[in-house]
């Protein structure tokens, strides 16, 4: 094949352009610190990077949900602790009133204190967190426990599966125990807490010590229900804490995988850039000799 000056120039320019593209590639990587800047660089890698970034965003959303749920259950636990203290105080006062040595005036004083404890307990069960009542079921904007003058009523929703469900990971949900009707109504069918207090107040007004003694068992049942609910919420807290640990671990794995696919190895990239720049400069130096050759060089 005859090698002409035109062919040499074309070949030189093609090689120069190739070397220039490589230099530009490493310059861009060094300036952005990323392996790829556009889909055309490596479509598969870019697709994987996009997927990883979406996974990281989803992970952050799950973490926000988990932290919110943990705070929610902490508020519930504190509310139930206060409610339990009130019920235990009511139990103690009722036990004192059942003593035959107390007179009518003493029992009326006890009644006043029990009424105050009932209001304190209701305040605890009506605890609001971030604009949501923690024991109102799915209707979290309605105050669940109200004293309408004739007794205590539960105003929260009481439909089946009344607890709030939170998605804490892909395909993983946890139910927060928000159904206050379980705290209001005893499962054994012995009545609700409003009826219990009505009976306590009536027995105090009638100085009925026998009835006051009988009511102690019902008060204890409500205490047990409250304590059991608090225990269940504690188990949910443990599950949420474990989920938070898994979320943090998953975040680190995702960030590590993203870094491997997206970030450059600075030392290796700079070395490649230096090699390609040397090759580019060598091509430029050679090009000056090829392109400067003219007809007079062949006459000599």
Structure description:
By secondary structure, the chain is mainly alpha-helical. It has two domains: 5-33 and 264-299; 61-257, f41 fragment of flagellin, N-terminal domain, CATH 1.20.1330. Helices cover 69% and strands 7% of the residues. The protein is built from eight helices and six strands, in the order αααββββββααααα. Strands 1-2 form a two-stranded antiparallel ribbon. A hairpin with a 2-residue loop joins strand 1 and strand 2. The longest helix has 55 residues, at 43-97. It is rod-shaped and about 125 Å long. The protein starts with a helix and ends with a helix.
CATH architecture type of the largest domain: Up-down Bundle
Assigned CATH superfamily of the largest domain? f41 fragment of flagellin, N-terminal domain
Identify the CATH class of the largest domain.
Answer: Mainly Alpha
Distance between the termini: 25 Å
Order of helices and strands: HHHEEEEEEHHHHH
How much is the radius of gyration in Å? Answer: 38 Å
Give a brief description.
One of its GO terms (cellular component) is bacterial-type flagellum hook. The protein has 8 helices and 6 strands.
Write the layout of secondary structure elements.
Elements: H1 5-32, H2 43-97, H3 104-125, E1 128-129, E2 132-133, E3 145-147, E4 152-154, E5 164-169, E6 172-176, H4 181-184, H5 193-205, H6 209-262, H7 266-292, H8 295-299
Antiparallel strand pairs: 1-2, 3-4, 5-6
Highlighted features:
structural molecule activity, two-stranded antiparallel ribbon, rod-shaped, mainly alpha, 8 helices, 69% helix, Flagellin, cilium, 7% strand, single chain, 300 residues, f41 fragment of flagellin, N-terminal domain, 2 domains
């Amino acid at each position: 094949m005859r090698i002409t000056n035109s062919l040499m120039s074309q070949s030189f320019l093609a090689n120069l352009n190739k070397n220039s593209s490589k230099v530009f590639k490493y310059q861009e990587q060094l300036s952005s610190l990323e392996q790829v800047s556009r889909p055309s660089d490596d479509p598969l890698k870019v697709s994987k990077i996009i997927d990883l970034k979406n996974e990281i965003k989803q992970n952050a959303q799950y973490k926000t949900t988990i932290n919110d749920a943990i705070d929610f259950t902490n508020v519930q636990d504190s509310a139930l602790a206060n409610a339990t203290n009130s019920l235990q105080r009511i139990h103690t006062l009722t036990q004192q009133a059942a003593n035959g040595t107390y007179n009518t005036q003493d029992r009326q004083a006890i009644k006043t204190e029990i009424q105050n404890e009932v209001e304190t307990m209701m305040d605890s069960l009506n605890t609001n967190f971030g604009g949501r009542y923690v024991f109102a079921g799915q209707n979290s904007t309605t105050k669940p426990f109200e004293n309408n003058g004739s007794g205590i009523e539960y105003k929260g929703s009481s439909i089946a599966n009344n607890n709030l469900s939170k998605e804490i990971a892909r395909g993983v949900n946890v139910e927060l125990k928000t159904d206050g009707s379980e705290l209001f109504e005893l499962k054994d069918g012995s009545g609700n807490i409003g009826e219990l207090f009505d009976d306590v107040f009536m027995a105090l007004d009638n100085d009925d010590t026998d009835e006051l003694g009988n009511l102690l068992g019902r008060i204890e049942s409500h205490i047990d229900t409250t304590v059991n609910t608090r225990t269940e919420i504690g188990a949910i807290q443990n599950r949420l804490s474990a989920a938070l640990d898994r979320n943090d671990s998953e975040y680190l794995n995702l960030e590590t995988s993203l870094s491997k696919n997206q970030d450059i190895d600075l030392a290796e990239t700079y070395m490649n850039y230096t090699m390609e720049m040397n090759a580019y400069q060598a091509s430029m130096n050679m090009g000056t000799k090829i392109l400067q050759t003219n007809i007079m060089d062949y006459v000599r």
